[in-house]
Amino acid sequence: MKAAVIGAGPSGLVTLKYLVSAHTFLGTEPIETLLFESEDTIGGTFQARIYEDTELVSSKQLTSFSDFRLRDEDPDFVSAERYVKYLHEYCDKFKPWSQIKLSITVVSVKPNIKGKGHTITYSAKGTGKQKSWTCDAISMCSGLHVTPNLPEIPGLEDHVPLVMHSSQFKSRSQFGTNKTVMVLGSGETGADIAYLAVTSPTKQVVMCHRSGFHFAPKVGPPCLDFPDTQERGIPVGKWSLLTLLFDTAYVHPLLRNSNAPWTFYDWYVKGILWLNTGTSGGLDQIVGEPSPEKNHVSKIFFKSSKASPYISYPYRLNSKRSLVDRIRSGIIQSPVPSTNGRQIDLAPWPESVSSDGEIHFQDNGRPEFQRVKDGNIKPDIVICFTGYKQTFPFLDRDHYPTAEEADVRKILHDRDPTVGFIGFLRPSLGAIPPLAEMQAQLWILGIMVPERVHELRPEDEPHYRLLHGKDSRIGYGNDHESYVYQLALDMNSAVGFAEIVKRSGERREWRLAIAWALGTNVNLKFKIRGPWRWDGAERLLETEVWETICRRRWLFGKSLRTAENLTLKLTPGLQIISYCLFSPWPYLVL
């Protein structure tokens, strides 16, 4: 068996690692593997498309690969530079360097004319000479073959001094001094750059959106944590929001395939946000919430909230608070960071730009239009955060599907399972690298020992996908937790309740069962059993995952510590019973 990987970002590297080591897990012959990367180093997007102060939006606990974790001393949210270093350390650990071919451009991928398999034509940078390599399977992991999407706004490029796409932005120095900066786009990166701009010596910062956005915190909200100022908050996500025992496991098909779980999460998330900030549209988000037809958890990609206080600032000054809100905020309120009088002016999408450089905005019927319609806004710099078009110019389109056409677990097309698309999806709240790890496991298992893969039924697809509208630019969103668990079921890697309790009893260590029940769906959970079983998974669940859960401090955390201190000398079975008496989670689940 020979396999190729295209792209040396996180998805490509983790796929390469599993291909190289597959024989030790699956009992097969070793796979001869090559990875082709067009750049002169590894890292993919995290190396090529980063900017000053770039920070991962998902926590290290979730983003780390299962069998090689970011260090204890690393912060919960590491910088892009640190993450690239981590990828180098990952390769140093598992030693796939000899299989990685850098500065190699893939020219074409075509079916092998001599029979089954694929022929890859490539050339080394600067040589112009082409070579070919035949293989039995190929994994598409490259995100660098992209074309920027540029908005069509009359007069934009003719009458604004500087217009650039986000791919061209690298540092604060590009804002200049005392300039008006306009950001087109309210996605994760757009909001992040708006924050960089407003905390730089700019004159004015304007952020334009089409149909709203939703800010989420990066650490657990106070109503769940009751934070102690001497301690770190827990990384947000389902680490701090919900128990998972009956969240994505043991869900009856009738419930799973209905909208009931989405309805519950929508109510839950908006309720938690209101308790913390008095608004349900997003964390401290007074303005800019998604349009009514999109303002539902099943359709939202959550954004980091660093820009939120700057956007809300002018509205907060003039807002009239109800008696209920004053009572609520007196009991519990997420601290609102000071903006020192600085603000980000939220605006609708531009309609046109006049000859003197003034922006004319679309009337979206929202409060932000009333604030900016007569503001005579003339930006010096416009940065377009309007996404990319994913293209595979080297693929023979007569014979190969694209990532968008991969309709079997978002990994492959059933007409050719030897071609895998790894990492081409977007979680609403989660991280792509661990999803890519699970995708790689399933794809490799399918091509090496397909009899060990459960039937990949189409009816198991919809429940983990976001419910995108027809006009959505991104149509490949998914729920991280449900998707990971589905892939685990496909590989027989999901541990049952009885089995996890039995394992805890054998180890005389009840932390394993509790970490499994209360921790988010980190890939470690699916290394306890199945084809990719790893002995270190249980230890990490009992240490890293356990410690993260206990950082909840009040709800779960302190009750867990209390139960542990009182039951250390009991048998595992009695420990679990005693734990249930001291911990509130079973009652919340029921």
From TrEMBL:
Highest taxon listed in the record's lineage: Eukaryota
Keywords tagged on the record: FAD, Flavoprotein, Monooxygenase, NADP, Oxidoreductase
Pfam families assigned to the protein according to its UniProt record, in alphabetical order: FMO-like
Record InterPro entries: FAD/NAD-bd_sf (IPR036188), Flavin_mOase (IPR000960), Flavin_mOase-like (IPR020946), FMO-like (IPR050346)
Molecular function terms, GO-annotated: flavin adenine dinucleotide binding; N,N-dimethylaniline monooxygenase activity; NADP binding
Position of the signal peptide: none
Gene3D superfamilies: FAD/NAD(P)-binding domain
Cross-referenced PANTHER family: DIMETHYLANILINE MONOOXYGENASE
Stated family: Belongs to the FMO family.
UniProt name for this protein: Monooxygenase
